[in-house]
Amino acid sequence: ARRRRGVPRARGPGGRRTGKPGRVWLCLCLGTRPARVRRGGPVANVDPLARLALLEELMGVGAGAGTTVVFSANALADVERVCEHIVILVGGRPRLAGDTDDLLGSHVVVVAPRSAGSSPADGEVIEARHSERQTIRLLKGRGPSAADDGTVVRPATLEEIVVGYMRPPTEVAA
Predict the structure, then answer these.
(1) Which spans in 20-138 are helix H?
(2) Disulfide-capable partner of 153 in 5, 124, 138, 143 (CB 3.0 to 4.6 Å)?
(3) Measured between alpha carbons, how far is 145 from 94 in angstroms, rounded to an integer?
(4) What is the pLDDT of residues 55-78, one digit of tens each?
């Protein structure tokens, strides 16, 4: 579509960084009133104000016209800001999919002393990392109830959820 309409390709590091190519892309896409818009690359390389403007426009498109917007992103803050549904791909296959709010509400991080038991109650261990003094687990579920051993249970961030599911299974240990 870009070539047919005579829109130049975004330039490399020495070229424009204003986000203008992204806005031109969005205008060209929306001119056809599609049912679905797919953004093939991250927008993290444009300046922050242009990136936020583009993300706000994408949010408006999805909410206003009933258009489904699909995009890939490396900046998880952008994903959390604009996405209602997330699919995490690992090795080209879906590893986790769900509504953003549901995923955030169903995962906790448990930080416990290393000497604490290795099987936390009320949750499936997605990832466990051990240091000399503590164990940090990402759990799908509520996590353990309060303990007197210094264990802390808190809601997981989107970044912790995504990274936990993307790590190879060999790094996951109960």
Answers:
(1) 20-30, 48-64, 76-82, 100-105
(2) 143
(3) 31
(4) 777 777 666 666 777 777 777 777
